[in-house]
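Supplementary Methods S3. Input chains for the assembly prediction are listed below.
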Amino acid sequence: MIELVDLTKKFKQIYAVKNLSMFIERGEIVGLLGPNGAGKSTAISILSSLVEPSGGDVRFENKSILKHPAPFRKVVGMVPQNIALYSDLTAEENLLFFGRIYRLRGKELERKVDEVLEQIGLTDRRRDVVKKFSGGMQRRLNIGVAMLHDPELLIMDEPTVGIDPQSRNYILETVKRLNEERKMTVLYTSHYMEEVEFLCDRIYIMDKGNLIASGTKDEIKQILSSEKTISITMERLNEEFLDSLKENPLVNRVTIGEKEVTILVPRDINIFSEIIKLAESTGIELNSVDNKTPTLEDVFLHLTGRALRD
Amino acid sequence: MIWQIIKKQGLLFWRNPQQLLLLVALPIILIAILGAALGSDFENESSPIKMKVAFMENVGEQEQIDQFITDLHEKLPSKAVKEIESNIENMAPINSIKAVFESEEVSDFLEITYIEPSEKNKIVEDDSYSAIVEVPESFSYDVLDFMVLGNTEAPTLTVTYNEEQQVRTSIVSSFLTQFQEQLTKGAFLGKNGIDVSTINFQEIKGEVISINEKKPVSASAYYTIGMTVMNVLFLAGAIGYYAYHEKELNVFNRIIMANVSRWVYFSGVLASGTIFAFIQSLIIFTFSWLVYGIRFPNVIDFLVVTLSFSFAIGGLAVLLSALNYRLNSETITNFFMNIIATLLAVLGGSFYPIGDFSPLIQSLGNMTPNGAGLTAYITLLRGDGIAGIVDSVMYLLIFALMTVVVAALCFPKRGVSA
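Predicted structure tokens for the full assembly:
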């Protein structure tokens, strides 16, 4: 359906996006994962034909959308990272305005507004001004506006930033439902690993403007096939314990949390007894030692040496 | 589509009482405050400033004229005396001063009270008087003597000013000084064989609003127009702010993503600026009409000026919006709202007709949209028709077109993300 070919965007001497190539097939949910500043929003802006790239092309049905954006714009719905709404207007007024902008009129417009309000669960708040809404409700309406014209492709740029877990789940469920019931294609960017894991069929991981990994969830996790993640929790961290872990030749990487230390070790090594001995010798009171299933976070950590939310 | 953008802008104004207050209530409040500050002068259609002047003669003028004629017989041949006697009515200085004071034009702003010398102390105590003009005992005799024989120095009137009424006393002072100058010039020219009646002396002027035009413009009308054209400038800034926030929140991108041409959005901003400036002007002028009775002689001419002025404001609004987009900042609108609008207001004459100081300032003032608008409105109020406002209207339209062209050149080519 859509193909990004060698896309590059340079601001002065800095590459916001460098040689990015990716594709999206009809009906799938594709995740674009990366920390803040990875270049996700720039990539999305170019994909949406709002920003001209320094190099490369974006193709929709094999035609460049940079040269002919109109056919693509007809079938795409954009959910920006900001709440792109008029906060002094009501939910209904916002939907009516954007519906008319999308050239919907009369009964069709009224029907679509009702339908969208139903989908995003705001029917009973339709006449309230947006500024009185909670963050989660504003996010839902932000998505609703993008769905007014029944887009084939929904581009969602970090749609759950700064909202409560309940609203977040509602949004994730809504996206899943749209994909399943309407076969809507979704490009979903986030730096929340669990959202991408929950929603996406395929994932692209970006860091500092570069694409560093891509594939299905399982394919990406295979990157860690030679390693496993061990999580060690304790009452209080101890420098001597940490130093010993870092110096251990079997430990590939140590990540330190508040009361948790995560280590990457070769898959075929049993390191449990060694950890327990080390804890005893350094006076550490262990709470648990778990063998964790690798996550995308672990993959990102493995690839970049940094956590996604660093 | 443009209509949707205008409608949305109207809703946004309507939902923002603070903004409405600034755009509509503030100029009305300012006009009301000025009305209260200028008191009864404000509601008087004829003149912005009213002053009371007491006029005191120590000796009647006729007695002095009779004495002068009697004395003249001893100095000149009787034929010459007869000729002077036949013209003496026109030469009598006090009669001339009184005639000017009582003329329709001057009595509009100057109320003259004739007092007896015994009342002088009472009048000095009365703060409502701007000045007391005292005619010295032999004033008329000396003036005639000076004019006919050139024997004495030009006599002077004694004037006691009320220092608390500086503007008014300066008007009386300038009025009398000019009278004195005319008197002196008349005598000098007459003495040198020049017929005074063929010379056009400078007319007497008021200080705040000129009274030498076709029809005087009241302070209420002047300040209503001044406040209106000034405050409508802020509407351009307000629309610039809204447009910038549409960019900031990605609403503009959403509109572009809906396959709406950026020129439709651009035209929407221009049309919003024009229409809401028009509505804002109409509301303020309607208030002034209902409360102060300020009305334009010809509604069509008034609408032509208001539309032209509103179009210029629309151009300004779209220019500010385009600059905000181009610079990715609302600094330019802030600068306009806080500095430029005030400068334009001063230069355009909203606070004071500073154009009266010099033709250069007048020309500069007329190059501001508010100044051109103000000039056009004032011209209409003075009774001139459409012919009198062609220059101002043309300037407003050219200004609008120029701002639209510059805005179009600045406007972003695609969306404004990243």
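Chain B has two domains: 2-44+220-410, 51-190. Chain B touches chain A at residues 1, 4, 8, 11-12, 15-16, 248-251, 253-260, 413-418 (CB under 8 Å).
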